[in-house]
Amino acid sequence: MDIDSIIQRGQEDDDLALPSSTLDILRGFLRDKEDREKEEQRLVQEGANNTDITESFSEDWQLSQFWYTDDTSDRVAREALKMANGGRIACLSTPSIFRALKRISPALDNCFLFEYDKRFSFYKEKFVFYDYIEPTNLPQELKGSFDFIIVDPPFLSEECQVKASETVQFLRRSQESLTLVLT
């Protein structure tokens, strides 16, 4: 349902009405959001000449995305590189951390992003679609193959936390594999 349909429904119901100035602001916000989404889709489709286009992506609050600042992302990424000690790294619902890892260590080839937001398919074979509702619906070749896992479950609900934990168990190589949980 688009904003004009919502407005029309609101006008039919005398109890619901927004001032025209508020409606103009809302229309502008939704137009900007639509333009941004179209540009992001275009960049993903074109590949943007192999530059990291994800830097221009904005958070999608409907996906419960609240990204870390560059400073925080860089600190976590450096710690992950140190703790992984050359091992395989999984970034579970942490696109800003994954982006920092790639920025700090561009040749890093042993790091994967598990993410619901398909805009990050830009990372091609390093992107793995991940839906916490199906915690182990992942490529079997990745099972038990990670030495360090960074996870920030998208929701604080018990269900989401438990399912994220199931994914961590699925991905970790051994009991010695380290996990960094962020919230």
TrEMBL record:
GO terms for biological process: methylation. Signal peptide: none annotated. This is N(6)-adenine-specific DNA methyltransferase 2. GO terms for cellular component: cytoplasm. GO terms for molecular function: nucleic acid binding; protein-lysine N-methyltransferase activity. Keywords: Cytoplasm, Methyltransferase, Transferase. Pfam families: N6-adenineMlase. It is found in: Cytoplasm. InterPro entries: DNA_methylase_N6_adenine_CS, Efm5/EEF1AKMT1, Mlase_EEF1AKMT1/ZCCHC4.
